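Researcher: Quick test of sequence recovery. Tokens follow.
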């Protein structure tokens, strides 16, 4: 027999396990808050900007073909900026206690569509180190690209600055707690249905019908002690009234 679950049964399961669902959601959100505030270290970001554009004299006019060439070179430049040829010099110049591969993981290079400006963003637990790596990467790239590509069309548009009031870019505790709360609710609901699915005890006549695929002809009612006491008292009162009636 194929089993079907009605919306009433689903709502009954959620109502039955409501406290469990809330407990799982609260525990997940609490764990996320503790990890975000007390375990994870804050990470800061510093950014510098490079302009890819050939230097021009006053006699030179705007050349659309040259601009298009610079735009096509930017994708190549984005790769070169994060290459060992650049980052190894950055590590050496700053005397960093990390490898070029580790520095690579801290750098994000991107540019807007059809823009000649390249943004070099560096994330680190120390905002000063993040700014130093960003500025040194831009400086080394500007110097080395002349040797690598035999072109001189890169200039530093803006330098990265480390300020004491800089806010960390991650972790974001509030966002993490909200995400954990949603995930906890989903996990609690899934756990509630799993427990209900694994519970194979027979609780009522409907369970007997589903289990045996047979109609229920009758059921035995459970009478508690309070009901028995009331029933005996009522019967005794009737007996007394009947006795008085006979005596009269």
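Model:
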């Amino acid at each position: 027999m194929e089993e079907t679950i009605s919306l009433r049964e689903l709502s009954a399961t959620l109502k039955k396990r409501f406290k469990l669902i809330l407990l799982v959601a609260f525990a997940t959100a609490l764990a996320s808050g503790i990890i975000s505030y007390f375990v994870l270290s804050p990470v800061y970001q510093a950014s510098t900007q490079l302009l890819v554009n050939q230097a021009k004299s006053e006699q030179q006019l705007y050349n659309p073909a040259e601009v298009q060439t610079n735009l096509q070179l930017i994708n190549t430049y984005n790769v070169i900026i994060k290459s060992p040829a650049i980052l190894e010099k950055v590590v050496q110049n700053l005397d960093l206690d990390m490898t070029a591969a580790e520095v690579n993981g801290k750098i994000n290079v991107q540019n807007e569509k059809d823009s000649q400006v390249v943004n070099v963003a560096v994330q680190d637990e120390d905002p000063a180190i993040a700014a130093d790596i960003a500025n040194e990467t831009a400086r080394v790239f500007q110097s080395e690209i002349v040797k690598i590509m035999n072109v001189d069309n890169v200039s530093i548009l803006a330098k990265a600055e480390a300020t004491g009031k800089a806010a960390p870019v991650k972790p974001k505790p509030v966002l993490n707690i909200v995400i954990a709360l949603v995930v906890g609710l989903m996990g609690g609901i899934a756990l509630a249905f799993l427990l209900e699915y694994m519970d194979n005890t027979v609780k009522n006549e409907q369970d007997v019908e589903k289990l045996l695929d047979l109609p229920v002809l009758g059921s035995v009612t459970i009478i508690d002690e309070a009901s028995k006491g009331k029933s005996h008292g009522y019967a005794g009162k009737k007996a007394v009234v009947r006795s008085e009636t006979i005596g009269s």
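The longest strand covers residues 44-52.
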